[in-house]
Amino acid sequence: MSTEPTGDGETPDTTPDTASDTVSGTAAERPAPASGTPEHFRRLHPLTPLLRGWAFLAAAIAFGGQDALRSGEMGRFGLTVVAIAVLGMITGLVSWWFTRYGFDGDALRIDSGVLNRRSRRVRLDRLQAVDINRPLAGRLLGVSELRMEVAGGGKSEAPLQYLGVEDAIRLRAELLARAAGIDADTPEAPERSVHEVPLERLVWSTLLSGVFVFGLVILVGIAVAFAVVPDRRAILGVGWSILPAVIAIGAALWNQLGRNFGFVLSESPDGYRIRKGLLDTQHQTVPPGRVQGVAMRQPLLWRWKGWVRLDVDVAGYAGESTDDSQRTSTLLPVATVEEATTVLRYVLAGSDPLAVPLHPAPRPARWLRPIGWRRLAYGADDHVVVVREGVLYRNFTAVPHAKTQSVRVVEGPLQRRLGLATVRVDTTPGPVDAVIRHRYAHEARVIVRTQAERARLARKADVPEQWMSRRQAPAGGGDPDGDADGDGQQTASIERDQE
Amino acid sequence: MAASPRCGAGWAYGVASGAVDQDALFAPPDEDWQQVSRKLVHLRRLVLLVSLALGTAVVAVGLGLLWGTPGVVVALGACVVGLIWGLWLIPRNWRAWGYAERVDDLLVTHGVMYRKLTVVPYGRMQFVDVASGPLERRYGLATVQLHTASPATDAKIPGLPAAEAARLRDRLSALGEAQAAGL
User: Fold this and answer.
1) Which pLDDT belongs to residue A157?
2) What is the 3-state secondary structure (H, E, C) of chain A?
3) Residue B85: how many CA atoms within 13 Å on its side-chain side?
4) Which pLDDT score is estimated for A80?
5) How high is the pLDDT of residue A158?
6) Does residue B155 belong to the interface with chain A, where contact is any CB pair within 8 Å?
7) Which residue in A16, A77, A350, B132 has the most C-beta neighbors within 10 A?
């Protein structure tokens, strides 16, 4: 068929080790029987089976316990739990024993499975991001999870669950160094904090979100109803029925507050880094040239404070559920416009999206978008295409030409009557989409043609996948990415060499 | 396959103003446009006839049991309307399909009500799919689809003769490899 540069070459897939288990893994000193796995490959943290299995065991106890309480057979229940625990312990240990990882050429290889051996190779030149996540239980036990995104086929690639804290950091440094195309022993690059979100602002941004206001309205409504309506039972019924909604609202608020607690964005030669989280902490590293698009957004109530949020498209991040995508795609949860602008300039190195002159949508667009048509606008310079839209929820999107996957024009029947068409600049899946709505047909034609041309030129000048390699083997050609980018990278590589 | 520019008289649209503009937008006249096989019309007619016949039979029986003869008449009437509309639409839809291989990208255009033009740079291609169902095979047709890292990319070309599909597949993958860019 064709090239499939999506990264992992997977052998026929097997059931992932659904280890259900409990036990402290102490039995670790036996010779490795695993055939084909090189000797220097390492195992995951010995507490892995315990951490992976505890949730399963808890569920078994909860369900079985209910059952046992109802029937009164506590003895049998206890036996079952012990049996499950022993079984889970054995399978967990076995799966842990047979899972090993290590570097194999220019890829990270992870061998796992007992009956069906599975060997995955994660191509490092396709590395899009490296995350170190520490769930609450992991923090208590001193382990963390390392997650690599290689933009392959939707699901996240190869989370290494679990590694010791030091091991994870060392492995990340080695992954990034190899992916950057420099010596694997290079220690982790230094980072410089760019932006920290103050707790007070985070709390206020949560309180000013539409979800919170909505929840407040519901609560007040219930309180008023209690005071006014005499039939308490009916109100209680209504209250119960909206309980799921209330829980959903709570979860949404937690998303903004708990997940983004202690948010620090820093820059390093290995790209931008994000550290955040109250209970579960997350530490993301996205190398240079991996940002596929950025959106600056402003909910209605934030306008009063002049705050915005930044969302980012990174290939592989949006592969899973929307929840995961929301968690990983936040570049800044809340910031002032100036701060956001600085960050925007930094992640889209060499361009200034907010300085791009905008062309508003033509007048006929008012028939299709009576309220927001005046805010519809797009613009493009040599590096990015930007789109502005939204009246209540303001939205400003920037997509680098070098990351354009394809360009489309679509024209519906109504648009045809008005002589309009919509141009879409397709990017990898994620929260950022550049849609240039409602332009005159002749204009749309020019946009498509120039956009395709700009994308072609930008692709040639883009940051190479091995973002350090260009500096090591200078090709002689001028740096087409503009000064800011070039200088940044130059110093970056020197810093690393000195380390 | 005969290379035929798609901006002939038959292509012109029933829109009073800006018809030229419209064509130029979705099928830039200076490209070497290829049409898909005419057999696609036969294939789609067959699918239409069979599905309409089956659908009408079910609805007619249902309505007939409910309302008696008038119900059957209504069902048959709807069937005739659907048939005429479909038979009118299918050739137009076929004519709207087109693709052009440029130096750096592939253009695909289709759609009658919603007209679309997709520009896919070869370097952005992740893989090419060639599919041919049992019906398509009977007509010697195949569908070629380009995939990029964006699921929104809408680059599917149905109704290609098998040989052309194979040629296109090979050419696309060769070009994709030659111009491959990272994400």
Assistant:
1) 57
2) CCCCCCCCEECCCCCCCCCCCCCCCCCCCCCCCCCCCCCCCEECCCCHHHHHHHHHHHHHHHHHHHHHHHHCCHHHHHHHHHHHHHHHHHHHHHHHHHCEEEEECCEEEEEECCCCCEEEEEEHHHCCEEEEEECHHHHHHCEEEEEEECCCCCCCEEEEEEEEHHHHHHHHHHHHHHHHCCCCCCCCCCCEEEEECCHHHHHHHHHCCHHHHHHHHHHHHHHHHHHHCCCHHHHHHHHHHCHHHHHHHHHHHHHHHCCCCCCEEEEECCEEEEEECCCCEEEEEECCCCEEEEEEEECHHHHHCCEEEEEEEECCCCCCCHHHHHHHCEEEEEEEHHHHHHHHHHHCCCCCHHHCCCEECCHHHHHCCCCCCCCCEEEECCCEEEEEECCCCEEEEEEEHHHCCEEEEEECHHHHHHCEEEEEEECCCCCCCEEEEEEEHHHHHHHHHHHHHHHHHHHHHCCCCCCCHHHHCCCCCCCCCCHHHHHHHHHHHHHHHHC
3) 7
4) 80
5) 63
6) yes
7) A350
Q: Are residues A236 and A324 in the same domain?
A: no
For residue A185, what pLDDT is reported?
Answer: 82
Interface contact flag, B176 A2, Cβ < 8 Å: yes
Same domain, A310 and A223: no
Q: Which of A3, A441, A451 minimises the CB distance to B22?
A: A441
What is the pLDDT averaged over residues B45-71? 91
Q: For chains A and B, count residue pairs whose Cβ atoms are closer than 8 Å.
A: 139
Q: Which residues pair with A321 in a beta bridge?
A: none
User: Which residues of chain A are within 8 Å of residue B152 when distances are taken between CB atoms?
Assistant: 405-406, 408, 424, 426, 433
| CB of B69 less than 8 A from some CB of A | no
Q: Are residues A292 and A426 in the same domain?
A: yes
Reported ipTM: the value is: 0.83
Residue of B nearest to A422 (CA): B116
Give B-chain residues touching A2 at CB under 8 angstroms.
125-128, 169, 172-173, 176-177
- Regarding whether A453 and A383 lie in a shared domain, the answer is yes
Q: Domain count for chain A, please give it.
A: 4
Domain identity same for A240 and A320: no
Low-confidence ranges of chain A (pLDDT < 70): 1-35, 55, 152-158, 318-324, 470-499
Per CB-CB distance under 8 Å, the chain A contacts of B26 are 409, 411
Instruction: Give the minimum alpha-carbon distance from B54 to chain A in angstroms, rounded to a whole number.
Output: 31
pLDDT tens string B127-170: 899 999 999 999 999 999 998 888 888 899 999 999 999 999 99
Domain of A453, in residue numbers: 288-461
Same domain assignment for residues A298 and A314: yes
Option in B129, B153, B182 nearest A405 (CB):
B153
- Note whether residue A90 is domain-resident: yes
B181 in contact with A, Cβ within 8 Å = yes
Q: Do A444 and B176 touch (CB under 8 A)?
A: no
